[in-house]
Amino acid sequence: MSVQDTPGAAIGDHGVIGDLHTVALVGLDGSIDWCCLPTFDSPSLFAAILDERRGGRFVIAPADRGIRKQMYLPETNVLLTRFLHTEGVGEITDFMPIEQDEAGIRPRRQQIIRIVSVARGRVHFRLECAPAFNYGRDRHVAVAHKRGVVFRAGDMAVGLVSPVPFTISEGTCTAEFTLSAGQSVTFFLVHLDTCADAELLDVPQSGDSALRDTVAFWRKWLAQCQYHGRWREMVQRSALTLKLLTYAPTGAIVAAPTTSLPEDPGGVRNWDYRFTWMRDAAFTLYALLRLGFTQEAGRFMEWLNARCHELEPDGALRPVYGIDGRHDLPEVELLHLAGHRGSRPVRIGNGAAGQLQLDIYGALMDAVYLFNKHGRPISYDLWVNLTKLLEYVCAHWDQPDEGIWEVRGGRQHFVYSKVMCWVALDRGIRIADKRGFPADRAVWAAQRDRIYTDVMRRGWSPEAGAFVQHYGGRELDASNLLLPLVFFVSPTDPRMLSTLDQTLQELVSDSLVRRYRIGRAAPDGLPGGEGTFSVCTFWLVEALTRAGRLAEARLIFEKMLSYANHLGLYAEQLSPTGEQLGNFPQAFTHIGLISAAYNLDRYLGRGGAL
């Protein structure tokens, strides 16, 4: 059986490597199942995770299955896949060198380096490199050269530098080789801005030296981390993951590096997350600043600043932007791809970019407030643009919108959206008072108070005993767990404590939290179901922590850690059996983990150790 015919790996059966411009997903089976070059949102070169037959992959694995393990070299994003057999132990060290100038401009040369070695005994390997350019839509040719093979499709080309003999058939390169203990070979997959074959196969640095430099880069970067609490290993892995999801040229952080990995296997809830959402802003800034990564926080703030200078004609922000700041992200269905385990359609682009999501203004203003307080003072020019956004909030906060969950079943007066409009005005007033900026304080304060009263009157349901998802409804929504985290209500307010209890009863199972009850909450316009939403569990941990319910918070947090994949990574959601669902790895979930760990550790350190 060809290695290309092996069953596809589950979403969670992958590690991730990257070079701060894009990533590659590497399965436990030694297969690179996803990679877009040269950037996160470029068309895919390998996409077997979306279509086993048409997607393309680059696999190196022993002929016999054996036992498979993965780990990261300590304090790095260098991935080690191990194959344990009775006759030997084989290893693949996968990484992407970090090559960029001080400004973070994309390097001319990008590489995936795969060092194959044997630690014990003797192992026979098979290699198959079958790229599928432009999401498998473009035909390519494979041309053999003395040092390897060049794959070319139009203006795009990659070179595979191979130290072992290979054969080419129908655009696919294959090889077989055997290594004994102490032996190793290195394969380079190279992409260049220019496409001369000789350059594609000219590797200026050995695999060993590139490995040393890459390990040194990640360890030097992680040394800045200021968290030394109880969950240091998981927090550091989350920090390393966030750094991997950072686009160096602009400082933007993608929500996830993949598209269309399903929330409901076999269903239609498949979205492209290779962009940057405004609502992630405050959570991202908070996590980075708390861990001591001030440079990353500053770069992301620069990206946010630029968006504030690019308002829509009506003065609004978009909910989501491209990593380079572009506004239009047209949603297209790739009908030729089968989808992960039959989950169709596969989508690129995201129609949510054109939605009205009023909560993003609170997220942005909270991010600016945090950065001004813990990072560095914001500029007057940024402030001028922020005042325009606050004027927009004053004029539009009472409108229905698509909300935090980007529903496609019609707008509602979502409680969380109203609360975040309150946050926007509250933080605007705080920044103005702190910095002495000119501000229409009286108008902002009046509108802020109107929103507060409106939410308390219409967003609280005595019958449900909780803050509800939207005005006029009785269903709960996990986003309301954030109300004490954004200081809208006290964490011990009777209404919040009741909301916590009702949430635990209706939306929580063994630490796993649903966003809302599909079919009973506001219609999201989509058929099928979904898993539990991982970041919501970390919101629950924080809400319980701030309410002083530390025993509950710690148990839920520890249980949630057990749901991570074998490398400590999380997708967006979890199935009832704990399988990772949705795009992977998801930044929002790892941000939530960092925040929950930081605050739970801090509260336990006050004398509440359990």
How would you describe this protein?
Helices cover 32% and strands 22% of the residues. By secondary structure, the chain is of the alpha+beta class. The chain has a 15-stranded antiparallel sheet that branches. Strands 26-27-28 form a 3-stranded antiparallel sheet. The protein has a two-stranded antiparallel sheet with strand order 16-17. The protein is globular and about 75 Å long.
- Proportion in β-strands: 15-25%
Structural class: alpha+beta
Query: What portion of residues is helical?
Result: 25-40%
The profile of the biggest β sheet is: 15 strands, antiparallel
Low-confidence stretches: 1-7
Tell me the number of helical segments per DSSP (H or I, 4 or more residues long): 14
Mean pLDDT across the residues is 94
